[in-house]
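Q: My labmate handed me this sequence with no annotations at all. I'd like to see what the chain might look like in three dimensions before we decide whether it's worth expressing. Could you predict it?
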Amino acid sequence: MKECNNFDMPYRFIRLITFIDLPINQKFRLFFVGVLFWFVGAC
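A: Here is what I predict for the chain of 43 residues:
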């Protein structure tokens, strides 16, 4: 099991919020949901 150190946490957080670790189909799904959110919110 990999040990979690304090210097690794910001790197892991950035990868989490930028969806780097997600498969491509989940990235497209999140993009679609985000676009729908902005279209509904703009009306």
